[in-house]
Specification:
By secondary structure, the chain is an alpha+beta fold. The protein is built from 6 helices and 26 strands. The chain has 3 domains: about 110 residues, DNA Polymerase III, Chain A, domain 2, CATH 3.10.150.10; about 110 residues, Roll (DNA Polymerase III, Chain A, domain 2); about 110 residues, DNA Polymerase III, Chain A, domain 2. The protein is elongated and about 80 Å long.
Length: about 375
């Protein structure tokens, strides 16, 4: 194999593909990047047996071929090459020679035949989304994905696709995030769960808000096509929480409040709460005011924010991070909150419509029975 290409293009492709490379494995091949030269394209692949990223760049191919090179070594070299172009060649002994300017490296590689085959995704209707929309919807739900959960399925985001509708759902046992959007899609209804790691990597590759991304969904895997990149991932199996039954259908208190003012007030009151010194923030809702306070071994803090309250007064406690995560995900200046006493979850909603819904479980206050 022998080719010449732009150093920056090859380096950028390598850095992006490297994110799918396994760093903890007993299979040496998947610690590497598969480099293929075919036709006029140089194709790079990283795959950790769960997530795979493939991309291609243009180059001058003098001899077709393929080889596996350790990902960290290859990317470190490409990032530091001195010249605008790089020459890459390998022989039958799987020695790769990388040359740029006066810099020259000889790196031991492996046979491409040792690289695991990426799964193929066939069937179904492709789902086409604006890159900006997918980025926004993932950002507004991924914070509620479970990090450590006995049910692996909760470590991903659930996609529900029906005619002209897309819903993303995340849950971690303490909070629930739902994001809805209209979708120009006509096809069979689909429900699947994508690992949060996969979506985090996909989002990093979304660089043009005006362009689209295509989702191809199979029985066990999903493939995202964005620009010159193809990201393939396994889907998560298991029984996802029946989240609809967790959403309260009645409420005794309704609140209208400015989201930014509420966040800033909670943050001021949370300055005495640390990872080691945990304590809930206490919210006293009454008379068109929310009084916010916290007490820890460091001291106490109090603040207040104006709002509009309808219904019964309520005193309720929350994990400050869980509450502010949900508030930050809202993309409206004003938000509506619905409560049903001090031990039921709080619902956070937009002023109009059903674009998002966030549910946060309360924390029992020490002075509460």
């Amino acid at each position: 194999m022998k080719f010449v290409c732009q150093t920056a293009f090859l380096s950028d492709a390598g850095q992006n593909v490297q994110r799918a490379v396994s760093t903890k494995t007993s299979i040496p091949a998947v610690e590497g990047i598969l480099v293929k030269a075919l036709g006029s394209e140089i194709i790079l692949t990283g795959y950790d047996l769960e997530l795979g990223i493939t991309t291609s760049i243009q180059g001058n191919i003098e001899e077709s071929g393929s080889i596996i090179i350790n990902a960290k070594v290859l990317c470190d070299i490409l990032r530091r090459l001195p010249d605008e172009s790089v020459s890459f060649e390998s022989d039958e002994r799987y020695v790769a020679v990388i040359t740029s300017g006066d810099a020259r490296y000889e790196i031991m590689g492996m046979s491409a035949e040792e690289y695991p085959e990426l799964p193929s995704v066939t069937g179904g209707f492709p789902v086409i989304l604006q890159q900006s929309l997918l980025r926004e919807m993932v950002r507004q739900t991924i914070f509620a994905v479970a990090v450590n959960d006995s049910k692996i399925v909760h470590t991903g985001i659930r996609f529900e696709i029906s005619e002209n509708k897309l819903r993303l759902v995340a849950v971690d046992g303490f909070r629930l995030a739902i994001r809805n959007e209209d979708l120009d899609y006509i096809g069979e209804e689909m429900t699947f769960v994508v690992p949060s790691k996969t979506l985090s990597e996909v989002i990093k590759l979304l660089v043009d808000d005006d362009e689209t991304i295509s989702l191809g969904v199979g029985k066990r895997h999903i493939v995202f096509e964005v620009g010159s990149y193809s990201i393939i991932s396994r889907l998560l199996d298991g029984d996802f929480l029946n989240y609809k039954t967790a959403i309260p259908v009645t409420n005794t208190t309704k609140v209208k409040i400015n989201a930014r003012e509420f966040i800033e007030s909670i943050e001021r009151t949370s300055l005495i709460i640390t990872d080691k010194i945990k304590s809930p923030v206490k919210c006293e809702i009454d008379n068109n005011t929310i009084k916010i306070s916290s007490i820890t071994s460091l001291g106490s803090a109090k603040d207040r924010v104006n709002c509009t309250v309808e219904g019964n007064p309520v005193i309720i406690g929350f994990n400050n991070k869980f509450l502010t995560d949900a508030l930050r995900a809202c993309d409206t200046d004003e938000i509506h909150m619905k409560l049903n006493g001090s031990v039921s979850p709080i619902l956070i909603l937009p002023p109009e419509g059903e674009k998002f819904l966030y549910l946060v479980l309360p924390v029992r206050l020490k002075n509460e029975n």
